[in-house]
Amino acid sequence: MNNDLLTLISCTICSFLITYITIPSVIKLAYQKKLLDIPDSRKVHVQAIPSLGGIGIFIGVLISFTLFCSLNSFETYKYILTAYLVLFFVGIKDDLLPMPASKKFIIQILIAILIAYGGIRISTLHGLFGIYDLPIIVSYFLTVLFIVGVTNAYNLIDGVDGLAGGLGGIGCTTLGILLLWVQEYNYAILAFAITGSLLAFLRYNFAKYPKKTFMGDGGSLLLGLTITILSIRFIEAPNTLEILNISSPIGIVTGIIFIPVYDTLRVFTLRILNGQSPFQPDKSHIHHEFLRSKVGHRDTSLLLWIGNVLIISAVLVFRNQNTVNLILIVLTVGTAFIHFLVFIRNKKETRKISDLSQQLKSIQKENYLIQ
User: Fold this and answer.
1) Which domain holds residue 254?
2) What Cα–Cα distance (Å) separates residue 160 from each residue in 17, 166, 220?
3) Does residue 360 sit within a domain?
4) How many independent structural domains does the chain possess?
5) Does residue 23 sit within a domain?
6) Which segments in the chain show pLDDT lower than 50?
7) Single pTM value for the model
8) Residue 359 is assigned to a structural domain of this protein
9) 110, 143, 248, 259: which sits with the fewest CB atoms below 10 Å from its CB?
10) In the prediction, which pLDDT does 304 show?
């Protein structure tokens, strides 16, 4: 166990250093070749910023993961590597020359099928709705739906500095610890490889212009795919129930991915109710709501990080509950936290309006006295 822990620490440091060293060169190249994310009415930044930080994340994860995992005992490595390469280049292509959403979805579905074919597949619901082992067709369907849905949820929530990187880092760290605990060492190494790269990326994501960069689709799609792979392996790990006294791995995973998935479902619902396509970009995400209230990027990300930690803590505390109860706990804690944030935001807005009204009344009174 001590050797495994040392390996994980070494992997994390290695991925951190590789990404930390790589990103400045990527930023320099982006400015030289004018490969920049230009601001428009939908985006929240005001300067042209490189959005190729995903290159640094990809290189850091790929090298450190390959270096520290046990390839001889890792039968799914070739499928994960293939999926990584394809999705990364799709993301980079979309960052440079936007692709039709339909084309990206088809590629993501094919990648998900490849991952399922490689053995990373949801094969049981652990008693949810009374269902345990799944028929192979249903297993493939749920796996593809989960991979495509969650991957895009992390892609869509990447709208302010540090949000996707922070939520992804928290999720990967949690899953990495749990996978280490249940003796899934290769997957734990993958989790900590991306955690190290995300820590290095956040240093540049929070930096000031011109040292700043975004992860882009090349990074966010890779992050979402990794979260799904780790989640499925945790759900399927044979030692999870016995070692961790967890009755529902599905409930634990729901807590980890709740905020990105909740935000995506919320946004899609609002767009449909407004008669728009659910894939039509707009500014209706939770982070946009806070930015409109003059809450900064860092504070918005920090608040949602805290919410993610609270939800994960809640499901781990009640880990011996069944799946339905755990999901209800996630929904209760998650929605209560988000609505609390919305309440605080609205209260802040009301106070601003009240202060402005008082100022206007004061000005009108002064004008009246002068007259």
Assistant:
1) 2-38+45-354
2) 24, 11, 12
3) no
4) 1
5) yes
6) 353, 356, 368-369
7) 0.89
8) no
9) 110
10) 92
